[in-house]
Amino acid sequence: MTKLGIKKEEKTPPDNRVPLTPEQCVEVQRKFTDIQVIVQSSHVRCFSDEEYREKGIPVQEDVSDCDVLMGVKEVPISDLLPGKIYFFFSHTIKKQEYNRKLLQTILQKKIQLVDYEVLTDKNGFRIIGFGRFAGLVGAYNGLRALGLRRNIFDLKPAHQCAGLEEMLYQLTLVNLPPVKIAFTGDGRVANGVLELLEFMKIQRLLPEQFLEMEQPEKPVYTQLLPQHYAMRKDGSAFDLQHFFKRPEMYENAFLPFARATDLLIAAAYWDPKAPVLFTAEDMKQPDFRISVISDITCDIEGSIPSTKRASAIAEPF
After folding, report:
1. At what angle do helices 188-199 and 132-150 cross, to 10 degrees?
2. Is 73 a residue of the active site?
3. Full 3-state SS string of 120-134
4. Cα separation of 151 and 46, whole Å?
5. What 3 state SS string does the chain have?
6. What is the per-residue pLDDT across 30-82, written as a single tens digit (0 to 9) for each?
7. Could you tell me the pTM of the whole model?
8. How many angstroms separate the CA atoms of 258 and 288, rounded?
9. Count of CA atoms in the C-beta half-sphere (13 A) of 221
10. Which is the catalytic residue, given 7, 8, 84, 91?
11. Sheet holding 68-70: strands in order across?
């Protein structure tokens, strides 16, 4: 019998997400009869200990005897147990400096790490990652920041809303000024952003129209894909698959949009070998128009140099 332990989240600030819901724990045991799921007691989860117990899943303080341990965020280095199998987002695949010690410890303790970020299907597409709700909340937080920055409205914090319906309702209470919004990407996160902007009935413009319109009469937005913010260094025509395979052969083409955007919502995957959207020096220029950035990608000092640290759910700004 293989014991699968659901770890409590211990990273600060706390994260109330779970790798498996109570119902999913039951499904795992039904489908894989040689697996027993055990949940580590936690007071911060979105599901209470009692909800797991009601489904027949044992809850206990110590899960160190489990063969496999699943969490969401990084496990504290001091809690890593030698020889175990761990599932969590390690935030090391891009050689993040701040988690170097974590990866070194994993290697030293001969731990088998299954990082959600690198799990893919047969076509090479990620199967676990930020999705629709990250885009919805990221866009909402960007609009909330815009309202606070301009002192024109104060949206209720997303985490205080009872659910998506209430969050969207909050948007119906504000009158958005004629701002220009640009967002990057076309994946699951970007689709969440698009859904929220469409809900608000904001006018959509093609990237070329967006650049031509200096000051709109009402709010507008545009969606930017890689061909809009990156270009071949050798002057050749842009090729998306080539960009994915050889991002180091491309350079920045985003600056025209930096001079034409008020709110930027970054929702596209960024490869460290690809060009950044802009530099810290670009941000100091008088024609740099962006005043609010919602960086859902959250690559520390990555494509957006002003992202110096991850923000907290309760304090997103």
Report:
1. 50
2. yes
3. ECCCCCECCCCCHHH
4. 33
5. CEEEEECCCCCCCCCCCCCCCHHHHHHHHHHCCCEEEEEECCCCCCCCHHHHHHCCCCEECCCCCCCEEECCCCCCHHHCCCCCEEEECCCCCCCCHHHHHHHHHHHHCCCEEEEHHHCECCCCCECCCCCHHHHHHHHHHHHHHHHHHHCCCCCCCHHHCCCHHHHHHHHCCCCCCCCEEEEECCCHHHHHHHHHHHHCCCEECCHHHHHHCCCCCCCEEEEECHHHHEEECCCCCCCHHHHHHCHHHEEECCHHHHCCCCEEEECCCCCCCCCCCCCHHHHCCCCCCCCEEEECCCCCCCCCCCCCCCCCCCCCC
6. 999 999 999 999 999 999 999 999 999 999 999 999 999 999 999 999 999 99
7. 0.76
8. 6
9. 24
10. 91
11. 59-60, 35-40, 2-6, 68-70, 85-88, 112-115
- In tens, the pLDDT along 120-158 reads 888 887 888 778 999 999 999 999 999 999 999 999 999
Ordered structural domains, the chain, with CATH: 2-118 (3.40.50.720), 132-295 (3.40.50)
CA dihedral of residues 13, 14, 16, 18 (deg, nearest 10): 110
Active-site annotation holder among 7, 73, 84, 180: 73
Q: Tokens 């119906």 label which residue?
A: 172
**pLDDT tens per residue across span 84-105:** 999 999 989 888 888 999 999 9
pLDDT by residue (tens digit) across 245-256? Answer: 999 999 999 999
Peptide bond connecting 178 to the previous residue in cis, omega within 30 degrees of 0: no
> Both tokens of residue 129?
């990652």
Q: Is 91 among the catalytic positions?
A: yes
